Amino acid sequence: MSTYKTMSYHLETERLILRPWAESDAAELSELVAERGKDAPTVEYTRTVIRKLLTETATTGFALLPVRRRDEGDFIGYCGLITGRSTVEEPEIAYELFRRAHGRGYATEAAGAVLDAAVATGRKRLWSTVATWNTPSLRVLEKLGFERDHVSTEDSGEVVWLTRALP
Known about the structure:
Blueprint: E1 11-12, E2 16-18, H1 26-34, H2 43-60, E3 64-69, E4 75-82, E5 92-97, H3 106-120, E6 125-131, H4 135-143, E7 147-154, E8 157-165
Antiparallel strand pairs: 1-2, 2-3, 3-4, 4-5, 6-8, 7-8
Helix pairs in contact: 1-2
């Protein structure tokens, strides 16, 4: 049994709403993945990914959540906690937004809400891993108080590991 509280799965900020995945999010998530420059996964495959995310949430007590703009109601990406390259005790914060949502502070706003939710679980540290070329994501993390720990080389290139102590 985990010594950590379950993360809140419904987070709201001034401009954003983060809530649990629904299979109806599959088409939009598929479009977001396609923006990476690869073929879009099928909607059915993406539904399978969403089911896996929901299962992981039930197991870990934390979640990667879809991000919607409050006023417009549109899906702009996701943000949350994942095991990723880390552990359940010290998870990674992760986020990805459609390019049309870049440069407006949404990533910082969503990640700040997730950071607060992580604190409420009782965790003491978070990690994040970001490709060295991804300067905007590195800036978001630095604004949130993450500090560089080390750089590793992976098949996809160099990755910066950042960490943030939690109160």
